[in-house]
Design brief:
The structure is a single chain. This protein has about 280 residues and is an alpha/beta fold. The protein contains 10 helices and 6 strands; from the N terminus they run H-E-H-E-H-E-H-E-H-E-E-H-H-H-H-H. The longest helix has 15 residues. The two termini are about 15 Å apart.
Length: about 280
């Protein structure tokens, strides 16, 4: 499945970013801690050359802590890119990440540090900005493409921070990357097949997080071995049925994906550093 979801405002934002990046001192790149590689925009790598940058692994509170630590070591040690894992609603964590980036900016105290927040949709950029500002200055929502225009907010310590709309790239490849992004909610649900996404998610959960499945769905006894059987079992037990008592796989799939995205299935990561494949480094 090659997902294509590229609303018109994303192309406009991509063009604006090229100009805007040149005018700021540093970039605070927000990725999803559950999928730090797949939620990194390759376009940003090309326009960020020469800029101070920190990679923020947001939503760390619902990601697998051991896997998150492995990602931090990968970025900090192997890639030589400063990285920090945070929960965007926690002021201390967000402030520490911002200050570590501001400290890299060469300026006198009279000049404002200009920081741009960048990242793909639904990684929590606006949530972090609201936390840092101590008030709601940016729209948030658990759906992609809530922010549509660049916004500037002045923070204490002479810092201006810019919130930008999240952008993807026209064709998301390889297939695995598209599936992982769809699982996280970074892509509009109108552009994905829930059953296909749930099948992929069920396979991952059975292989890596069977205990999380049993904790959330105690009726899975014994635990099914196949993804399709897992979806069917959940659908049966949770009343996702059509007329005649047949499982409604669409509804069952939506239920599993909602549980996964919200963290109700536990602290789960969708990808690991050891899974890195050169196919991820597509030139978009």
């Amino acid at each position: 499945m090659n997902i294509q979801w590229y609303p018109g405002h994303m192309l406009e934002t991509k063009n604006q970013l090229k100009t805007a990046v040149a005018k700021v001192d540093a970039l605070l790149e927000v990725v999803d801690a559950r999928l730090p590689l797949s939620s990194s925009n390759p376009f940003l790598e090309r326009i960020a050359t020469g800029k101070n940058r920190i990679k923020i692994l947001n939503k760390a509170d619902i990601a697998d802590p051991e896997t998150t630590q492995a990602w931090l070591e990968h970025f900090n040690r192997d890639i030589k890119l400063p990285a920090a894992a945070i929960c965007g609603t926690r002021l201390q964590e967000a402030s520490q990440a911002l200050q570590s980036l501001v400290s890299q900016v060469d300026r006198n105290r009279a000049r404002k540090a200009k920081i741009m927040v960048v990242g793909i949709p639904n990684t929590g950029k606006s949530t972090i900005l609201n936390t840092l500002a101590g008030r709601k200055v940016a729209k948030t929502g658990n759906v992609p493409a809530v922010t549509r225009h660049q916004q500037r907010t002045s923070l204490k310590d002479n810092i201006d921070i810019y919130d930008t709309p999240g952008i993807l790239w026209p064709v998301i490849e390889p297939r695995q990357r598209g599936l992982i992004l769809a699982m996280s909610g970074a892509i509009s649900d109108t552009a994905v097949d829930y059953h296909e996404i749930a099948y992929f998610a069920a396979q991952l959960l059975l292989e890596r997080y069977p205990a999380c499945l049993v904790a959330r769905y105690p009726f899975l006894n014994p635990l099914p071995e196949a993804p399709q059987a897992l979806i069917e079992s959940v659908g049966n037990a949770r009343g996702c049925l059509k007329k005649g008592g047949h499982v409604d796989f669409q509804k069952a799939s939506e239920l599993i994906i909602r549980d996964l995205r919200s963290g109700r299935l536990g602290r789960i990561s969708f990808e690991r550093p050891k899974d890195i494949n050169t196919n991820y480094d597509t030139d978009q």
